[in-house]
Each structure stands twice: as structure tokens, then as C-alpha cells.
Amino acid sequence: MARAKKAVAEKKRSFFEDIQQVTADKGFDKQEILEVVEAGLIAAYKRKYRTTDNVKVVMDKDKDDVYVVARRVVVDNIVLPGMQIHLDDARKVKADAQLGEEIDIIEYPLEFGRIAAQAAKQNIIQKVREAERNIIFNEFKDRKGELFSGIVQRFERKNIIVNLGRTDAILPEKEQIPRERYRQGDRIRAFILDVELTSKGPQIVLSRTH
User: Fold this and answer.
1) Gyration radius of the chain over CA positions
2) Which of 200, 176, 173, 179 is nearest to 190 (CA)?
3) Exposure of 148 by Cβ count < 10 A (0-12 exposed, 13-18 middle, 19+ buried)?
4) Is the pLDDT of residue 36 over 90?
């Protein structure tokens, strides 16, 4: 029993370490991350069992513990794996389980299987990136017309890519002052000309000519 508990703890920890690594330094609070994880687990469970009608996600915010509870009917012949549980397996959870009874089964993310767990991680990573893009867009959308300071990151053709801290912006050739020259690592002050949310994230356009 102790060995089984240890294995479950290692599975849970490994899953959350991956998620925490993805979300580190992104500026999210714990509640935002737990909501994203919840959506990812529901998607993973549905991928394995083709249903989520009998499922709820339990979140322990203090312990960073998130798992799925599935209510299943005890049967002696499984027809719907996501909705039913065999009597022998049910009695491993509840010793006096009877046919026709409904019992709650707890599953951790990696118990969904490798493919489903990977799908959950990908779903979570995608949602984290979407949330991050929205945070950055909302941060800059009302700052059009302001002067902003950044660091010259790199050059793309004749455009300059400027790091503004949490994201990069573009200083197009037509918005540069003739004969001004910059090197990578130089600090530059520019006018925020435009901010748009694209499929690749927020696009911030700078200007030195304004």
C-alpha cells in the first residue's frame, strides 16, 4: 500500500512539475493555473473515456493537488468503461460494493495513460500561452501614444526587434529616423504606434519618427 501511494505521489508530482515549469515567471496567479489545469484534465479524461458526464475535478489549492473524481456504476460486465466499473475492481476501492451501486473513483493525470496525459499537458500549455498573450495585449493596448524604453534584440531585414521586457516589439524601417544606427543591446526609446492581437500573439509597432 505504501509503495502504491508513493507511485501515485510521484506521478502527480511529475505532472505538476511539468506544468509549473511551463508557467514559471508568466505572471499568473495560482487560481488561473488551477483553472487551466482543470480544463486540461477534463479534456484528457474525455480523450480516454469518451465522456465527461460523470466527472468532476477536485482542486486542493493549498497542496497544488488536482485530480479527477469519476462516479461509476458497479457492474459484472463492462459496456461503458468511462461510466462503469467491474465489481472486483470496485471492491478494491470499497470492500462492500454491490452491483448497481454508484461509487467514486479517483484518477490522477498520468493514470489516464501516456497519450491522454500528454494531451492534457499540451492543452494546458496552449491555454497558458493564450492567457499570456491576452495579458500582454491588455497591458499594452491602452498605451498607444506613449513613449516606451526597450533593448535592441535583433535585426530582421531592415526592421529592428525591440525587447520591452515581457514581449518584443517591431520598429519598422519606415518608422526609423534616417542615419540613426543601433547595435544589439542598445537601449532605445520609441513611440508605441499600434498594438494588435494576432494569431501569433500581440504585435506592437514602435515609431521613432513620431
Assistant:
1) 25
2) 176
3) middle
4) no
Residue matched to cell numbers 477534463:
42
* Residue where the block lists cell 475535478: 57
- Counted residue by residue, the chain has a size of 210
What residue spans of the chain are helical by DSSP H?
Answer: 2-23, 30-49, 87-93, 114-140
CB 173 within 8 A of CB 190: no
Name the residue type at position 199.
S
Spatial CB neighbours of 40, under 8 Å, sequence gap ≥ 6: 120, 121, 123, 124, 127
Q: Identify the pLDDT of residue 170.
A: 85
CA-wise closest residue to 105 among 56, 69, 66, 77: 69
pLDDT in tens, 61-72: 666 666 788 889
User: Model confidence over 117-168: pLDDT tens digits?
Assistant: 676 677 777 777 777 788 888 888 888 888 888 888 888 888 888 888 878 8
Residues 147, 164: Cα–Cα separation, whole Å: 12
- Taking the mean position of all CA atoms in its chain, how far away is CA 92? 34
Cell 500561452 belongs to 129
pTM of the model: 0.51
Does the pLDDT at position 5 exceed 70? no
